[in-house]
């Protein structure tokens, strides 16, 4: 698994964050007016727009240094979104298999996720030890569970993102207090 940098945990994000999704849909219309559509993407690109309401001098240097290490939008990194970062009681399948893909659920839409932490696996509601690798949650070698067991899990997840563009800007508001301009993060696969 690739080793990605993790964005620093700074809990002063502004309330004005937004999240959107983008698909790559191609529309074709024939001479008769009939239309066809096709998407070339299996999963959407998520766009997260946010800013920091206030940063101490230390936090300001930490964020500026982080974006310098990833070279703006050049290198992807992991973002623990303060709003969307947990799944709890997610039904992953049954004991008929020994491994399950972690997922993020948005209503009827389900998306695989590959960067998870703090995993708790449950077999018929009872916590069970497990291994995690690239979003796959699996039983330890030799562990046996009933094939008809219901498998659920709780976990936190990171978004794999990059800075859209190469610019991050912060401004001095008051002595040793900064705030950032809007920053846009886009998911990468």
Blueprint (SSEs and pairs):
Blueprint lengths: L4 E2 L11 E5 L2 E5 L5 E5 L5 E6 L4 E2 H13 L7 E3 L6 E9 L4 E3 L1 E4 L2 E4 L3 E8 L2 E3 L2 E3 L2 E3 L11 E8 L1 E5 L6 E5 L2 E4 L2 E5 L2
Parallel strand pairs: 1-7
Antiparallel strand pairs: 2-5, 3-4, 5-20, 6-19, 7-17, 8-16, 9-15, 10-11, 12-13, 12-16, 14-15, 17-20, 18-19
What would you note in describing this structure?
With 189 residues, the protein is mainly beta. Helices cover 7% and strands 49% of the residues. It folds into two domains: 5-80 and 161-187, no CATH class; 86-157, no CATH class. It contains one helix and 20 strands. The strands form six sheets. The chain has a six-stranded mixed sheet, with no helix packed on it. The radius of gyration is 21 Å and the shape is flat. The model has no long low-confidence stretch (mean pLDDT 91).
Question: What distinguishing features does this structure have?
Answer:
single chain, 189 residues, mainly beta, 2 domains, 6-stranded mixed beta sheet, 1 helix, 7% helix, flat
